[in-house]
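Exercise 7b. C-alpha cells:
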C-alpha cells in the first residue's frame, strides 16, 4: 500500500473481519480465494469486497482471485498487528481478568505491560504473567514505562477520575469497556468503545424482524 493513502473509517472497521477470515483460511492451508467465495463465507457482496480490497492495491487477479498470504500480511500491516504498543489494563475484576487472560494483545499490535486495581486484596496476584498492581502506583509506573494505551474495565463511576489521570500521564488511546462517554470530554483521544449489550440487542432486533 502507498504510504499515507487514505482509507475510510467504514473500510478500516471491516479490516479486522477480513483479517480474521483470511487467518482461518491461511491456517487451513488455502492459498487463494475468489471474491465470490470470500463474499459467500463472509456474508458480504463480492462487489463490496472488491471495492474494499481495491482501497489498498487489491491483490486480486482476474481468474486467480486473492493470494491469501499476501492479503493477510498487507491487512495486518495496515492494522499494525506487528506493533508492540505498551498497554495497561485498569480494573482486574471479572471482566478485566477475562480480557487480560484471553485477549492475545501481542497478536494485535499491543504489549500488555501492567495491570492495576484499587482493591488491595488483589495486589500481587498474577494474571498472564503480570502482577496486579495497586492503582496508587499508576503514576510512577507510567512515568517509568510510558504506556500509550489503557484498557478500562472499571465501573462507570470510577472512569471519569481515572481517565483524567490517564490523560495527564500521556495515554493516547483507550479501549473502553465502561459506559463513560470519554470522547465527549476528550475528543483528541483515540477511543474504541465496546458495548457487548449493543451486539445482543442487534440480535434481538434480528429475531424480532
Ligand atoms: P468487577 O466488580 O468484577 O470488577 C471491577 C474492578 O474494578 C474491581 O476489581 C474494582 O476493584 C476495580 N476498580 C473500581 N474502581 C477502580 C479504580 N478507580 N481504579 C482501579 N480499579 C478500580 O466488575 P466486572 O464484572 O469486571 O465489570 C467491570 C465493569 O465493566 C462494570 O462496570 C460493567 O458495567 C462493565 N462491563 C462492560 C461490558 C461491555 O460490554 N462494555 C461487559 C461487561 C461488563
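Sequence design result:
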Amino acid at each position: 500500500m502507498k504510504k499515507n493513502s487514505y482509507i475510510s473509517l467504514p473500510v478500516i472497521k471491516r479490516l479486522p473481519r477480513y483479517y480474521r477470515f483470511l487467518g482461518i483460511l491461511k491456517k487451513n492451508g488455502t492459498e487463494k480465494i475468489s471474491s465470490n467465495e470470500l463474499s459467500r463465507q463472509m456474508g458480504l457482496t463480492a462487489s463490496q469486497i472488491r471495492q474494499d480490497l481495491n482501497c489498498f492495491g487489491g491483490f486480486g487477479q482476474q481468474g486467480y482471485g486473492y493470494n491469501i498470504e499476501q492479503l493477510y500480511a498487507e491487512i495486518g500491516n495496515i492494522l499494525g498487528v506487528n506493533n508492540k504498543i505498551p498497554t495497561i489494563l485498569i480494573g482486574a475484576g471479572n471482566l478485566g481478568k477475562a480480557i487480560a487472560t484471553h485477549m492475545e494483545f501481542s497478536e494485535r499490535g499491543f504489549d500488555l505491560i501492567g495491570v492495576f486495581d484499587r482493591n488491595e486484596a488483589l495486589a500481587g496476584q498474577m494474571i498472564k504473567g503480570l502482577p496486579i498492581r495497586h492503582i496508587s502506583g499508576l503514576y510512577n509506573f507510567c512515568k517509568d514505562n510510558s504506556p500509550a494505551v489503557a484498557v478500562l474495565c472499571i465501573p462507570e463511576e470510577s472512569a471519569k477520575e481515572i481517565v483524567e489521570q490517564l490523560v495527564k500521564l500521556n495515554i493516547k488511546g483507550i479501549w473502553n469497556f465502561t459506559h463513560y462517554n470519554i470522547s465527549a470530554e476528550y475528543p483528541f483521544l483515540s477511543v474504541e468503545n465496546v458495548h457487548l449489550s449493543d451486539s445482543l440487542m442487534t440480535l434481538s432486533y434480528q429475531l424480532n424482524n
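Instructor comment: The chain has a mean pLDDT of 93. Residues 90-96, 116-119, 135, 153-156, 158, 162, 177, 194-196 surround NAI (CB under 6 Å).
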